[in-house]
């Protein structure tokens, strides 16, 4: 059906004057803004200095409508009824809905919109005439009088020269049951646009399995996530789960310091160790707020008494950190010796340098008679002092801090060794290659421990979020350790391929698509030397509250922004 294209006017704007939620998805801010006419105002208003400066409008020639195209694009929310438009810094729309919670007077009419049918006719020219595509992006003002209450239609050229079509509606994002994004409807659209009946179908889905933020970090990258990217052929419906025989790319970015992580306690001790090493170099140490209500001598007496019993491993009051490890990490924490527990006690309760000196000196005096259990292969200098029968040496200078640092390094080395080899994730000889070597500087040893901590965070996320089986974790550990051994990879994501069949525990919880971030279906023509590809991508918005009745269990139906991509090349999305 051919119709005469309506006469329209246009202005080149440095930025499309609509709300910021939509601006973030536009790659190019300068755009061609199309409207029906500029209304004559009865009042000679002086232009606001805050209003965006627009170039003089130009009358465009009438363009012949080549073919009507349904411009279904991205239904982003328009909070106002749109009759006419006045461009200002804060307001894009002319009049607010009477049902809206906002109230304002009717604004002066400046720009008049087209009907949505006329707007589709104008934009169809840019789709079918390549000579006009140099003017993209173009956005056309509509009157929101159609069934979907469309207020803006637009076209933009993507990174791979595909055409991206946008739609802003009063209703906002759509639900997964919307008829315009059902598979049969999309197949019909592909056949209409390409005039072919044979084409292949492929689905691509991105699942956000986990996202966490470190509130103590001010960096832009302070965000941990677990993301799955899956691809499979011949999907049967929109938002279906990946086929069991397909592959998934698992992308994980750890964020050491998350309190909900099973590795948080180890990270806290590593952070304390880093603080002490830097303080030893600068001779400035900010000491700790005492965690225990008892005096340090009372705590040391209690600890020595426990480690002098015949059955050392059956401590009456088991240290809480061991229970924390058992519950949240993937291995059973093995017993620690006296030096390990002394490190934990002093690193949390020494409120001054004098406290540290007196505590170490008192421990040496008590150990001369009580002999607490220390692992025979504990190489720390303080461990050797405890085992010898000579008179306790006098500690001088910054030696107490060095002794405490040695205890912390040795304790964390054993922790990491037990995490990986104790749970049979990797052989002891393999993990030993990544542990700090004796005799190297404190900074070098700290860097080794920091890289291993990132690997521990990834293992903890795989175990807690993805519920990966033991064999799958074993295959990942060695390349994981190699990845974070490179200092340039600190804070970056780690990725690996995995069969969807191994992610059964995760996908069993996804029947409602609760964590799908993006879901895309691609149609590619198969009988043409220059294949045409059409894609429909659904991007999930935040869950909406179903009601305010106080029922915390009820949540609204998930809604999706939708984008269409049309490309005449093999590549589609960047």
UniProtKB/TrEMBL annotation:
<keyword id="KW-0132">Cell division</keyword>
<keyword id="KW-0137">Centromere</keyword>
<protein>
    <recommendedName>
        <fullName>Protein zwilch</fullName>
    </recommendedName>
</protein>
<dbReference type="GO" id="GO:0051301">
    <property type="term" value="P:cell division"/>
</dbReference>
<keyword id="KW-0131">Cell cycle</keyword>
<dbReference type="InterPro" id="IPR018630">
    <property type="entry name" value="Zwilch"/>
</dbReference>
<dbReference type="GO" id="GO:0007094">
    <property type="term" value="P:mitotic spindle assembly checkpoint signaling"/>
</dbReference>
<dbReference type="GO" id="GO:0034501">
    <property type="term" value="P:protein localization to kinetochore"/>
</dbReference>
<comment type="similarity">
    <text>Belongs to the ZWILCH family.</text>
</comment>
<comment type="subunit">
    <text>Component of the RZZ complex.</text>
</comment>
<keyword id="KW-0158">Chromosome</keyword>
<comment type="function">
    <text>Essential component of the mitotic checkpoint, which prevents cells from prematurely exiting mitosis. Required for the assembly of the dynein-dynactin and MAD1-MAD2 complexes onto kinetochores. Its function related to the spindle assembly machinery is proposed to depend on its association in the mitotic RZZ complex.</text>
</comment>
<dbReference type="GO" id="GO:1990423">
    <property type="term" value="C:RZZ complex"/>
</dbReference>
<dbReference type="Pfam" id="PF09817">
    <property type="entry name" value="Zwilch"/>
</dbReference>
<keyword id="KW-0498">Mitosis</keyword>
<keyword id="KW-0995">Kinetochore</keyword>
């Amino acid at each position: 059906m051919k119709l005469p294209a309506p006469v329209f006017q246009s202005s080149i704007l440095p930025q499309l004057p609509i709300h910021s939620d939509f601006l973030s998805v536009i790659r190019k801010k300068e755009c061609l803004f199309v409207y029906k006419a500029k209304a004559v105002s009865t009042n000679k208003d002086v232009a606001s200095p805050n209003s965006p400066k627009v170039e003089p409008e130009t009358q465009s020639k009438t363009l012949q409508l080549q073919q009507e195209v349904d411009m279904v694009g991205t239904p982003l929310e328009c909070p106002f009824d749109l009759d006419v438009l006045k461009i200002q810094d804060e307001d894009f729309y002319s009049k607010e809905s009477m049902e809206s919670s906002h109230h304002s007077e009717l604004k002066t009419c400046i720009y008049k919109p087209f009907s949505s049918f006329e707007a589709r006719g104008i934009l169809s020219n840019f789709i079918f005439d390549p000579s006009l595509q140099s003017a993209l992006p173009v956005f056309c003002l509509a009157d929101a009088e159609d069934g979907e209450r469309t207020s803006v239609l637009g076209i933009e050229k993507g990174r791979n020269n595909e055409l991206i079509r946008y739609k802003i509606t009063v209703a906002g994002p759509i639900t997964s049951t919307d008829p315009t994004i059902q598979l049969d409807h999309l197949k019909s659209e592909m056949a209409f646009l390409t005039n072919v009946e044979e084409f292949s179908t492929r689905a691509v889905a991105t699942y956000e399995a986990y996202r966490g933020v470190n509130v103590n970090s001010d960096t832009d990258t302070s965000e941990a996530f677990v993301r799955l990217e899956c691809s499979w052929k011949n999907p049967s419906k929109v938002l279906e789960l990946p086929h069991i025989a397909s592959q998934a790319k698992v992308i994980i970015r750890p964020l050491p310091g998350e309190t909900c992580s099973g590795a948080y306690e180890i990270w806290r001790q590593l952070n304390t160790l880093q603080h002490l090493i830097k303080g030893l170099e600068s001779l400035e140490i900010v000491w700790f707020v005492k965690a225990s209500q008892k005096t340090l001598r009372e705590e040391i007496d209690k600890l020595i008494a426990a480690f002098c019993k015949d059955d050392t491993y059956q401590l009456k009051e088991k240290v809480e950190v061991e229970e924390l490890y058992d519950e949240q990490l993937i291995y059973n924490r093995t017993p620690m010796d006296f030096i390990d527990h002394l490190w934990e006690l002093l690193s949390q309760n020494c409120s001054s340098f004098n406290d540290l000196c007196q505590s170490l000196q008192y421990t040496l005096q008590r150990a001369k008679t009580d002999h607490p259990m220390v692992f025979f292969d504990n190489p720390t200098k303080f461990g050797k002092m405890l085992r010898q029968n000579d008179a306790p040496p006098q500690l001088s200078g910054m030696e107490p801090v060095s002794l405490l640092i040695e205890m912390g390094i040795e304790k964390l080395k054993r922790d990491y060794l037990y995490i990986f080899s104790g749970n049979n994730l990797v052989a002891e000889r393999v993990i030993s290659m990544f542990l700090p070597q004796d005799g190297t500087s404190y900074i070098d040893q700290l860097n080794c421990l920091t890289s291993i901590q990132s690997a521990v965070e990834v293992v903890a996320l795989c175990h807690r979020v993805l519920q990966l089986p033991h064999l799958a974790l074993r295959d990942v550990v060695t390349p994981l350790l190699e990845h974070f051994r490179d200092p340039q990879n600190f804070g970056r994501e780690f990725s690996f391929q995995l069969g969807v069949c191994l992610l059964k525990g995760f996908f069993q919880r996804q029947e409602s698509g609760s964590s799908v971030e993006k879901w895309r279906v691609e149609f590619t023509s198969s009988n043409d030397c220059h294949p045409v590809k059409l894609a429909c991508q659904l991007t999930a918005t935040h869950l909406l509250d179903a009601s305010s009745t106080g029922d915390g269990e009820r949540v609204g139906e998930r809604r999706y922004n939708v984008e269409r991509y049309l490309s005449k090349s093999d590549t589609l999305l960047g």
